Amino acid sequence: MTSLATPVVRRPTEPERSKRRTGATPAGRIAARVVVFVLLAGYAVVSLYPFLWMVSATFKTQFEVVRGGHLIPENPTFDTLVNTWNQLNFFDYFLNSVLVTTYTVALTLAVYAAAGYAFAVLRFKGRTALFRMFMALLFVPGVTVMLPIVILENEMGLLGTHLGLVLPFVNGTAPLSVLLMTGAFTAIPGELRESARVDGASELRIFTSIYLPLSRPALITVALLTAIPTWNEYLLTRVSLNDPSTYTLPLGLQTLASESVPQYNNLMAGALIIVIPVILLFLFLQRYFVSGLVGAVKG
User: Fold this and answer.
1) Rounded distance between C-alpha atoms, residue 269 and residue 44, angstroms
2) Which parts of the chain sit beneath pLDDT 50?
């Protein structure tokens, strides 16, 4: 009888499998990475230079800014920053921005967290159609509804008030907020809700004690995506507010730009005052922001 030997099959190594998947040699992959790195580095330089110029101009005199030169100030001074903050009412503008942003974020989380819970968990007639209507609003430019908003607020007596800013801002965040919160709540296992219902928990108790704590990254993501554009918003604020005592930071910065002889160092100091809180907020909550987006997409 003839014995048949079992053929030995050599498994491909990891580099070989990677080469088969990508169809590239190690040298080709290294070259591709170098190209990507160079492109990203160039983009970073182009993006960061205006910000660095703004920071540099904040610590320069008006003469040094107009003269131009290096980014590093020859004689750094804090006088420009201090004068912009103290003498140009920027503290009042800062407080107004904090109030408008805080009320907008709080109302957005309260309304659209509940809406997301309803779309993700509850079953009611017209649920799918209503959700699609919210998603369709993502494609409606905000400037197209500005005139109806201004007319409506004028008839309601809200034009020129901070409440007249908060309500449109909250309304404008509806599509994205509903989408993120619905995705986050959908990702939570339904067995948790059923167990709580068996234990006699009400729908409100389930929402506040189970779903909200488990969706904290999504809540923080919605808060960030609401706070940043609200803090920086200019167009509707410019149309709505006429009393300088109600101005927010972007309008305060605009008053500096409208001077007969613009003081560019003061302008850059005002811009830095506006930007710093947003940067610090994002850096502090970046971890929750990324996980909130990932969780909402998976949901």
Assistant:
1) 23
2) 1
